[in-house]
């Protein structure tokens, strides 16, 4: 059993990840933004912790994270604020990652998984400037995490869907762009968090044909 801290635990991927980890017997600390989300996370079997990442960044302190992280085996950063104003997204998807990574280093938690974004997402579709800015924020967060001494893994899923879990994906450092269900993203993260031989890799993820365990075995050999 491992103790995993999931930041953004009440989200579409986050909730499914909490379920995957609990099913594996992990002890899950579920960091969420709104008080009314605690009940659902507790019902899943996690320990909910209320923490607004944007407030934590604005405070300039690591205290909120540092209270949660000691003793954890890994952190998964699944928070995102794509539908919020871009300044809030910058705090949650951008600076929040760097702050959480610094807090992990301060707390002695080495393993840190980040859900980023697929670089080819919606390219050529005439997306608004705010979308390009959001993608830039996601990339800058990747850059900040890669610059740390942590045992990081960055997962860049294609466009997320709410389709059901298939247990099969495409996963690799450079793959063709496509969709992937939040359920399969959660299942891949739950596998990767325990597979410490996969370290300091940026991995793109879409739906595909490989069993998740085989797909992770393959990237572990890279
Ligand atoms: N949509 C796509 O096609 C796509 C593609 C690739 C990557 N991604 C990335 O995948 C990640 C997860 O996506 P998702 O569908 O699971 O998103 P989601 O359902 O919106 O979940 C994100 C979670 O982050 C939480 N959050 C937002 N602001 C926060 C704050 N200030 N403090 C703490 N938590 C906060 C949200 O809280 P609330 O529930 O309270 O809002 C939500 O629970 C995101 O980082 C997104 O950028 C998305």
From TrEMBL:
Pfam families xref list: NAD_binding_10
**Which residues belong to any copy of the NAD(P)-binding domain?**
8-194
Q: Do you know which InterPro entries this protein is assigned to? A: NAD(P)-bd_dom, NAD(P)-bd_dom_sf
What name goes with this protein?
NAD(P)H-binding protein
Taxonomic lineage from the root: Bacteria, Bacillati, Actinomycetota, Actinomycetes, Mycobacteriales
């Amino acid at each position: 059993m491992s103790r995993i801290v999931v930041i953004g635990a009440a989200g579409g991927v986050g909730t499914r990840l909490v379920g995957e980890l609990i099913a594996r017997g992990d002890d899950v600390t579920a960091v969420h933004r709104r008080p009314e989300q605690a009940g659902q996370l507790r019902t899943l079997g996690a320990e909910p912790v209320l923490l607004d990442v944007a407030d934590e960044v604005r405070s300039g302190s690591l205290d909120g994270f540092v209270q949660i992280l000691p003793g954890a085996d890994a952190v998964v950063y699944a928070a995102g604020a794509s539908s919020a104003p871009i300044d809030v997204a910058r705090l949650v998807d951008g600076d929040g990652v760097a702050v959480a990574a610094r807090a992990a280093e301060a707390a002695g938690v080495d393993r840190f998984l980040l859900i980023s974004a697929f670089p080819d997402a919606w390219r050529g579709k005439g997306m608004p400037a705010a979308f390009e800015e959001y993608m830039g924020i996601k990339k800058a967060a990747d850059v900040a995490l890669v610059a740390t001494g942590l045992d990081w893994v960055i997962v860049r899923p294609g466009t997320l869907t709410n389709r059901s879990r298939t247990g099969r994906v495409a996963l690799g450092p450079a793959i063709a762009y496509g969709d992937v269900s939040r359920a399969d993203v959660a299942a891949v993260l739950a596998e990767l968090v325990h597979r410490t031989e996969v370290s300091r890799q940026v991995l793109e993820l879409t739906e595909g044909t490989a069993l998740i365990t085989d797909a992770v075995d393959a990237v572990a050999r890279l």
